Amino acid sequence: MHGRLKVKTTKEQEEERRVKRAQKVKQYRLAYGRIVEKRQAGERDEEGLQISQQILEMIPDIHSLWNYRREIIEHLKESGSEDDLQRRLESERHLTETCLRANPKSYGAWHHRTWVMDSMPSPDWQREVALCTKFLNLDERNFHCWDYRRFVAARAALAPQQELSFTDDKIAVNFSNYSCWHYRSKLLPLVYPDPAGVRPVREDQHRHELELVQNAAFTDPNDQSAWFYQRWLLGRSQPAQAVTRALVSPGLCLVATARPAKARGLGLQLLLDSRPLDGRWRSADGQRCSSVWVFEPASPIPSPLPGDVAARFLDASGAEVDVALDVVADGSSAALNSVPAFGAPLSPALASVMMEELDACRQLLEFDPDSKWTLLTSVLLMQTIERQQFEAETVLTLDTLVELDYQRANYYKDLRSRLVLEYALERQRGDAVDLTRLSLTALYHAPLLALVKTLVLDDNHLRRPLPQLAALQCCETLSMDRNELVSLSGWGAMPNLRRLSLRGNALASVDSLAPLACCPRLRELDVRNNPVASVEALRSAVKAVLPGLGVLNGEPL
Amino acid sequence: MASANDLPSTCDVIVVGTGMTESILAAAASRVGKQVLHIDGNDYYGGLWASFNLDNLNKWVKDCENPENFASDPDDPNSDVKINNGEEFVFLQNQTSHISNIEVKWHIPKKLTETQVEQWSRKSQTSQEEKESSESDESKSPTEEHTLSRKHTNSESEKMPSVGFTRNGNWTQEDLMRDYRRFNIDLAPKLLFARGSLVELLISSNIARYTEFHAVTRVLTWLDGELNAVPCSRADVFATRHVSVVEKRMLMKLLTGCMDSDNLVQEFQGFESKTFLEYLKSKRLTAHLLHYVLYAIAMGTDTTPCMEGVERTQRFLNSLGRYGNTPFLWPMYGTGELPQAFCRLCAVFGGTYCLQHPAKALVVANERCVGVVSCGQRLMAEHVVMGIAQAPTQYLDGQQPSGISRGVFITNKSIMPSEKEPLTFLQFPPGPSHPNPVTVIEVGPSTHACPQGLFMVHMTCKQSKSAKEDLQEIASFLLTQEDVSPSDYDISTDNRSTQTSGQDPHHHHSEGASGSGDEAATVRTKPQVLWSMYFNCLETSKNSYSPNAPENVHLCSGPDLELDFEFSVQQAERLFKKMYPDLEFLPRAPDPEEIVIEGDTPEVVDEDGNSFEFDEEVQQPSS
Amino acid sequence: MANRGGPAQRPNPQTQGKICQFKLVLLGESAVGKSSLVLRFVKGQFHEYQESTIGAAFLTQTVCLEDTTVKFEIWDTAGQERYHSLAPMYYRGAQAAIIVYDITNMDSFGRAKVWVKELQRQASPNIVIALAGNKADLANSRAVECEEAQTYADENGLLFMETSAKTAKNVNEIFLAIAKKLPKNEQASGAGSTNQGRRLQELDGSPKAAGNCCK
Prior knowledge:
Chain C: InterPro entries: P-loop_NTPase, Small_GTP-bd, Small_GTPase. Chain C: Pfam families: Ras (PF00071). The complex is a heterotrimer of chains A (557), B (623) and C (215). Among the domains of chain A are: 19-123, Alpha Horseshoe (Serine Threonine Protein Phosphatase 5, Tetratricopeptide repeat), CATH 1.25.40; 252-337, Immunoglobulin-like (Sandwich); 348-416; 429-556, Ribonuclease Inhibitor (Leucine-rich repeat, LRR (right-handed beta-alpha superhelix)), CATH 3.80.10. Chain A has 557 residues and is an alpha/beta fold. In chain A, strand 16, helix 17 and strand 17 form a beta-alpha-beta unit. Chain A is built from 17 helices and 18 strands. Chain A has helices at 10-40, 46-58, 63-77, 82-102, 107-119, 125-138, 143-155, 160-173, 178-191, 203-219, 224-234, 263-266, 348-367, 372-385, 391-404, 409-427, 538-545, and strands at 5-7, 243-248, 253-262, 269-272, 275-276, 279-283, 289-297, 309-314, 320-324, 326-327, 334-337, 432-434, 454-456, 477-479, 499-501, 524-526, 551-552, 555-556. Chain A has a 7-stranded mixed β-sheet, with no helix packed on it. Chain B is an alpha+beta fold. Chain B has a domain at 10-99 and 333-399 and 540-579: FAD/NAD(P)-binding domain (3-Layer(bba) Sandwich). Helices cover 30% and strands 20% of the residues of chain B. Chain B has 20 helices and 22 strands. With 215 residues, chain C is of the alpha/beta class. Chain C has one domain (18-181): Rossmann fold (3-Layer(aba) Sandwich). Chain C has 4 helices and 8 strands. Chains in contact: A-B, A-C, B-C. Strand 1 (5-7) of chain A pairs antiparallel with strand 22 of chain B.
């Protein structure tokens, strides 16, 4: 009987779907082929727009098609009025919206929309803000949309305060949201700048943010995004530019700075009795941006030096800052060798917040002793609060982390190296520094070692190239016995190095020693207990590579 | 009125009564091609599961109070319907016998005095004029003494100020009765777990498209003499300021522990015969957390066995994050919609529906039921399904069923006002004066439970005395039940009216609150009860049926005490399997696209309904 | 025999602008041709001896206006009206209704008036109601005068047309007229918007299905 309703069987439906799919594929091939033809023929016309639209509505992520549309519109723009362009771009905007509705994470469509809006004669930015809000309400973690929102917010000149409260809402919905925390870290310094310039944000707000993150951390310590944000909050602000080491002597003049900088921005000068010396600055490591600068005076340095020797540099605001050097009794040289300052001073209020954070971490660790983010955070907190007090605990915690989180072991080891070195450098400031057995995997703070004459790095885990040794301009004796050096490539040029001991490393070939040629005064080299030591005819081979060498492995060459 | 003779005199299944289980069964039978006749003596759907407007509710109350008035079969079956040899008539009961101890009470004046009306109109004139001018398209209702308030009587629009709002909360009985259609008052209010068996059934059977839901917005608990928002989702835990961060960790760890199926055995080793309370104590939970988990999340008591508590916690947590910030859904227009949705599916697949058609008796021959006598007609069927409320007494097991105590309150504001209209679930923990936990559900106007400006509070617990005795104390914790006299509405002494004005959300909205359920801990005034109703209803879910019932008569329980519809769904499925062991229970109903009409050649249309103009356009240029 | 007529306007994929979805319910006495009207509109078909509407929960069809695509979700009574037992759920939240009577049957017109009253009392106040005098092809057996119905419709603010599912007369037109009259703002966009409830779906609570007016 006609007119009776019947339900299609699954088979019938599958068949229909199959036919439909096949049709779509056919259409797609046809259309795409036509586009390729047109593009090759340089046809930039309405038809191209039409066909590419039909494909993009099915598959929005074909970049070349978006590019083609851009070319067409740019081309047609020349012959049309501004109104035409506006209309065309509005329809373009609509197309991206259609695509995004089908696939809210289409990179191509978002990217194209950015271009569309930037090219539109009279763009409606508020509409774009509303669109972003809508998409983020549907999926608060759509990072494409977050990126687009940042673009829109900048163009629409949205009040950062307003955007900040938008991130508040999104964080409340779901705090596992890198994009949102990240946006927050960009907005906060705008809304609540720190007048002291020490913290990322004003202190009261800083406190609030830390609490927010703490709540996230305690709700779910395994969520990385909140910890990531916390690290931004706790991150040490960049130290202000400063001269940390300086030397003026007839043989060598140098200045080491807290942060690497270019010569022009740094504006270095050496002053004798307030009169600048004439000469030329070059970086110790040959880089344009460096932390150690060597001065080559146009005329010899007077001896004895006058009582008033100073180094001058430009601070962040461009103002000249003079630092006095200590002149030795006989006037033969002047130097600056002050105690380094690691970490910015904390206000009591902030210190107590941090202390609470640390206590909270410790409580968290009672529940989850293996929570790596909690452990790492407690290290950062201890460093921020009171470095001296927590030296042992810092090292211990980092050792635990190395054990627990194998994948990030290298990161923890490097962090540990930096912190351990900082403790050591606070204690040792003489001509000779001993950094034996500190489990170092990296050599941080080399500029602070610029004046050191004897450096011992025995029994560490140094393995990677050491270009930073170039900072050791005064160093005459260096010992790196029992490390893990495999090669010496990238070795920093040390102009005064005379004795180098590399016993007990993994150097295998004579060639691996060749980089030492950058140290012109090297006389004594010890490579005993390296594979290379058993190389045949070692001595002549080394002599060939390092002709200036006088003593090898304790015996004259 | 259609004549009863129109009803098909034979069919596969006769379903008597449109309660929840009956309706699911009707839909299931119809869906697999059985001819279903579904009748109900009432002029409404749902039986003891119905939702009523205020007027119909009053009628229902009257019927319950005077069962003899209750619509009964107008025809004497013996006069028209012949008893054949070997047959007997087994007479059915009147379902209102399941309702007792009804008490309905108004707590507000019938109407305002003339002076008050005048005062109010003068006071609110200015603001009203503005509003009126922007709403001039509204159809004007006949004006009486309350010109200002009557205006919106027929409006469902949410943005408009409600009657009460315009008069600053000074409600009268007349106001409510005038808006009687805008009430949907549930006899058996229940929430659905977002992953409970009813939600899954609605989706899998494709019945979900007939109904709409609101997600419950918050779970509250009663702790230290106060209402507390229970942080139940990850977002809640993150946002709440009522527990310390360490407590947050404890809570999250406990909850994830209950969900970690891999380590469940290990985690609960040694607690198999202990209580959930003992387990929670072993976890060193703080008192607050213990309360949240035991009473609100697991909805348990001090004696809930450990593994049952874990199961309940799992059920709660499993349903989180599917449709909202809590695990629960509430049907728009009330729970009475749900039986109707199943009935619709039954009708869509050919079921015949006839309300106001009471069944008088079963026709039984040789210990089999051959049909039903109704309105002077013999209606014959293979199977008869009916609600237990109407079942002949000799078919019941004789065991006295337990009871449910119900309280319904129309109030002038939420028990805990919030920025957005709240939809609240509150499991009131047992206490010294009330041994059983009380389930409290508060619904607001956007669910169509009541007009703007009002809220409706449902309370349910196991009956121990009368409903009023069982619930009055809890009600007094949350609500003000004292009667309001007309003089309380005196405008010159404005105290009460501002307290009850429904503007509280603004007072309580603390800076930076982000909908986390954190309200400022200021002293709140309790909502005023405008109207209340108490009643008891039998709880028949535990009853079994005596072997006296013919095996093709299938009895369905009435509303049970549990929060969700698990019991009804399971009972319906069980009975269906008994009736049709080889047939599928509510397979998915087809979508419109899957339906073809015979004699029709299917045309290919893609999902969006686009036919392919595309082809031509692409091919044109290349030709 | 199946008479094939032209299908209703197909959605145009190029359409710019928003898509709004509306619930439309059909009301009227049995056998006045409610289902036939829908079938004509949705599938472009007519069956002289149409069985009652088994299995068709609701059908959908789209109408394109200038800047808006209106998607109708059309609910059929499924025969529940036969013994005056239509569930209130049926017209809950309906934004549009077509009340159908048979122009050859005066009773059906009377019944239509009852439905108008019922909707005016029970349904949403903004509901758009259309009155359809169906079976216009049988005008020679007419029992209800067109003028009478028109006057009644005017008095009650209803759209009115005489239709024929058989000849397709005014079928698309009446749906189109309703589409034009429906409010197309965000709030009116049917199921899914915030103050409305939400439909439960297989796609695990992904809110993407909500908010049909993606402006």
